[in-house]
Amino acid sequence: MMDSVGNIFRIPELRKRVLFMLGMLFVFRLGTHVPTPGINTKAMEMLISSQAGGFLGFLDLFSGGALRQFTIFSLGIMPYISASIILQLLTSVIPALEALSKEGDAGRKKITQYTRFLTVGICAVQSLATTFWMRSVEVGGMKLVPDYGMSFVITTILTLTGGTIFLMWLGEQMTEYGVGNGMSMLILAGIVANIPSQIGRTIALVQAGSTSLFAALIFVIVMVALTALAVISQQSFRKIPVQYAQRIVGRKIYRGQSTQLPLKVDYSGVIAVIFSSSVMIIPSMVAKLMERPGQSNALQTVLSFISNTFSPGHPLYIICYAALIIFFCYFYTAITFNPNDVAENMKKYGGFVPGIRPGQPTAEYINNILTHITLGGAAMIVVIAVIPDTMSRVLDVGSYFGGTTLLIMVGVALDLVQQIESHLLMRHYEGFMKTGHIRGRRG
After folding, report:
1. Same domain, yes or no, for 149 and 274?
2. Fewer CB near the last or first residue (10 Å), C or N of the chain?
3. Which DSSP string corresponds to 101-130?
4. Contact 144, 137 (CB under 8 A)
């Protein structure tokens, strides 16, 4: 394994790409310590610490701790990820965008441009809502914004939007000149940056006697098991045998051959969890924006109920969260994989599933298998997404390490290793795995 890692720096091109990626990640981490003007960072840090398991803690986790100090990268790269997912979904339902996506590089560049414009709009709305919420928030007798005014609103919107646009550019540069997907690497870097503080918090609780050593060990064992389950969910396929008949094209004769059609157990990956988390955050976020501390009326009682009910760990929250994950797993699979197109392509080139008639019967057969295996994949994602947060609260280990972060870490790490391994094998170096090649998320 160490020899394989050493081979990375023996290949000049791969070495340049890895060093470039590390340099861009250093710039990203440097920006997470540049505060936005007009914010009481001490009060903000106290607020985030008090809501480690809420939606503020969730956003802080993906921003790499930037929200805790309200830096220029507080919004993180999530607005761009949200815009990309929205455009991807719209491409499946809007014929004009679908036609544009099939035009090759020119069409993809146009969709990327639309994604950037949508990212700016999402950033402006999020930063404006954030400033509106901040104007009345007090923590420990300290105001988050000591001097709230129009200048603060404009400065904050421009700063946060500019920070996300810079991260978007940074991620694109990493994708082009580095290794792996730049946007995914930025998210991974933000998550990994929080792990030492989470571990330190757990150790401090064990030393103080607030948490038993046995409970901490149980949590570690469960997280290792869930990591293995996450790898299985990302790498599992259901293979359907496909037979191609002998055919003649011009003067060439193509012999019949047997192959396999791999169907992923979980096509959505982490997208279903991100969608579900985003939807579950909305009620609590809206309730907190409308809450007025110190006031007591029917509306404030309802808002407080919504805020408490739709918080991680509440039974109703867990049930709705699990149901949304299953829904989005099926929804994303339906828009990214079309059994009818697969069956038509197989029929066009003389392929068929043994025992199944070509055409529509083959499409129904593939769809039936896909429906069954997606349920199993969705069940694994639900287990990975729900158990870490629930156990951290039950065992009181002082660590908020959710299933979303676990799935992202596993998926991005597999993709990164797969790309590095392809560079090594292309130049006749031995890969990371002795018995086979690592298959990334793109399969």
Report:
1. no
2. N
3. HTSTHHHHHHHHHHHHHHHHHHHHHHHHHH
4. yes
Q: Does 179 map to a domain? A: yes
- One-letter amino acid for residue 84 of the chain: S
CB-facing half-sphere around the CA of 349: CA atoms within 13 A = 15
Asked if 305 contacts 361 with a C-beta cutoff of 8 angstroms, the reply is no
Q: Are residues 193 and 271 in the same domain?
A: no
Q: Do 241 and 121 have their domain in common?
A: no
Token match 């990302």: residue? 234
Residues 219-277: tens digit of each pLDDT: 888 888 888 888 888 888 888 888 887 666 666 666 667 888 888 888 887 778 877 87
> Of 90, 52, 91, whose CA–CA distance to 68 is shortest?
52
Whether the CB-CB separation of 441 and 414 falls below 8 Å is answered with: yes
Alpha carbons 169 and 153: distance in angstroms, whole number: 24
Residues 195 and 233 in one domain: no
pTM over 0.70? The answer is yes
Provide the CATH number for the domain around residue 378.
1.10.3370.10
Contact between 94 and 74 (Cβ < 8 Å): no
Contact 269, 288 (CB under 8 A): no
pLDDT digits (tens, 9 = 90+) for 139-173: 777 788 888 888 888 999 999 999 999 999 998 89
3-state secondary structure of 338: coil
